[in-house]
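Weekly modeling sync, notes
Attendees: S.R. (lead), two postdocs, one rotation student

Agenda item 3: backlog of single-chain predictions. S.R. asked that every request posted to the team notebook include the full sequence so nobody has to chase files. The rotation student volunteered to paste the first one in as an example of the format we agreed on. Action items at the bottom.

Example entry:
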Amino acid sequence: MKKHRISFMIGIVLTVSAAVLSAVSIAFTPYDPESMDIYNRFQGPSSEHLLGTDHFGRDILSRIMSGSLVALSSALLSVTIGAVLGIALGLVAALSPKRISGILQRIIDALMAFPTILIALVLVTIAGKGILPSALAVALSIVPVFSRLVYTMILETMEKLYIRAAVSYGAGRFRIAAFHLFPPMLSRLVVQFTASIGNAILLESSLSFLGLGIQPPSTSLGMMLSEARGYVLTYPYQAIPAGIALLVIVLGFNLLGDGLSEVLERGRRGRHG
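Predicted structure, as returned to the notebook:
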């Protein structure tokens, strides 16, 4: 099996496993993720608590299931918002007069010049803590990625002969965008969307680790790592499961994005070759 197909299949297995675990947590978890049991804290893995309990006696497996659901839902929300805004901004910048396009491009460049985590930290500090502010912060960091991608693809496509022909026949810019520009871009946008989910989960976890993201009583993988860092030497099983869960989810989406990119690119070459 070729390398890109192996990455694609591994990515599918990891992401589907994370999605199934998250979906199950909606209806069932072994214990209440927020139920404290001080008398049974720092319990190691056992038949009663498969991954042990934390410093408040909460079941770690239940918290990982709940945290995975929060991570995926928050990432999907933030990437969707960021993709919609970025695509709209890139479309307007590509189809507008040069002066307006230049201003929009400078805005995009300014957003890309700042480190992603810095933008998120500033926004969360201004808007406050919680799921929605952190999702909006992550979304804004994703906007320039999609806007630059759409802007570049539109400029490349506008040089095609069939686009020039449509312009010569009097077709409007938005009609050209709807019927001639977006269809060729869909595959690359899907790949970027998939890859951005892993980055969004990692960024949200970083904010939660710093105490600026998702707040209790909601559960976050980043929050779990932050809470466990004080006990990492004495009770390592508190941090390891959450770290592995975060690694698996992010790695899964990254591999899925890379594999999907290769599959779609080879399919495109096959159609045109």
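Discussion: group reviewed the output briefly. The domain at 3-26+58-272 is CATH 1.10.3720.10 (MetI-like fold).
Action items: rotation student to repeat for the remaining queue; S.R. to check formatting next week.
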